[in-house]
Fold Mannitol dehydrogenase family protein.
Amino acid sequence: MPSDQTSRATTNKRLSATTVQALPASVAPPSYDRSRVTPGIVHLGVGAFHRAHQAAYVDDCLTAGETDWGIIGVSLRSPDTRDALAPQDGLYTLAVRSSGEEELRVIGSIGSMLVAPEDPGAVLAALSDPRTRIVTLTITEKAYLRAAGGGLDAAHPDIVHDLANPQRPRTAHGFLTEALARRRAAGTPPFTVLCCDNLPANGATLHRLLVEFAELRDGSPDANSSARLAGHIADEVAFPSSMVDRIVPATTDADRARIAVELGAEDAWPVMTEPFRQWVIEDNFPAGRPSWEKFGVTMVGDVAPFEDMKLRLLNGAHSGIAYLGLLSGHATVDRAFADPAIRQFVDALWAEAIPTLPEDAGLDTSAYTAELTERFSNTALAHRTAQIANDGSQKLPQRIVASAVECMEAGTEFVHLTLVIAAWIAACAARGKTLPEGHFTDPLDASLTALLSQQLPANETVTAVFDLAGFAGDHAERQTLIELVAVHLVHLRRDGPTLAFAALGI
């Protein structure tokens, strides 16, 4: 959250539609007339990643003259982003940082911001507006409210609330379903739902969850009747999958102060990012879409191979770097990656994960990991290991566990993959001891804290964690996976990563 004291000693001006015209020549402002932009996209979950990624791509399209694709941003929980951007007319600085330089650009694609808990009716009105043809989401894995088996958590209090109060929803499920119901009743074609979160087959996953929610709302499992909302969502609404990639560290007060000097004006919430960006999208947009492909977006028929490569090589390595980095005393990714033992570990992790990727998809894993090596070494980003460590119970299934299960089935080695799971457990247990209390968080924290405080033997601990998080489901070799993780946990408990690495020959 931005500090109230940000850069006031530097300047009293605020970035806005008025002051943006007086920025230094080194800062690129929006080159289009924002007053001529009309909304075509509603985005749920306006965090730093969206503002560094999708909003920047849309800004490119607006610059090229596609002025009917402005963004209405929606915060499902906190008013922080709205409170920071509203006085700035939605404008903010995107700082693209490499180890040697920083390039500043002001993004203007977010035309307005809504806060769902304050006015759910306004959010539903925006979603129901015929001009809205795409709804994008970056709400993080935990906000999809999945049960341990992967289906909708129908007992979650917010789901229960939304089923009872469809006019005042709290969840993405409730907002999307009610808006689609209103559009159907009004004869308005449905919008396309474009998930941009790190979920496996994210479009198909959200499609399934929304149909499950609609079935509960219909009051019957019969989704085949043409009169039922679940059937409409199942058959008539497009949910293309996508893969997104850009490293976006948390903005600090030092970043805000530095940006204020460069702008000659305050920006309450600039976004820091790296030069690299990638977006791969399945091209299924019945209601139309921007010409994203003109600006580097890859439009494909099947996003799965790209998604798996990113989840298993970038995100999987990130999780390993985060937990092992935290246990080794490294606060940022670049410092952890510079640790020779962690660097060697990541290479070995990639060697285990790469064979799980499809051979016939045209993936260049050598070039991809070489690029990741450069990105992880970027000293300008200061990407905090604690930031990456959040929500491990939600992230590890697709980043690590899926690769380990496929290795088991193929009979190939996966001892480095299992160390990541053990490191997550050890890092969770270290909070309040060798790591600060609340240094990172997880949706299962209450249960994890109670479990880990018992200091059970490693095998019992890992079994209980797997049960709690639903890792590996009912796979026949689940116990083998548990035993391998437990061996690593024993090493981590005795002498931290040093012994764990030594056992792997690192």
Remarks:
- The domain at 304-503 is CATH 1.10.1040.10 (N-(1-d-carboxylethyl)-l-norvaline Dehydrogenase; domain 2).
- The chain has two domains: 19-284, 304-503.
- The chain is about 45% helix and 10% strand.
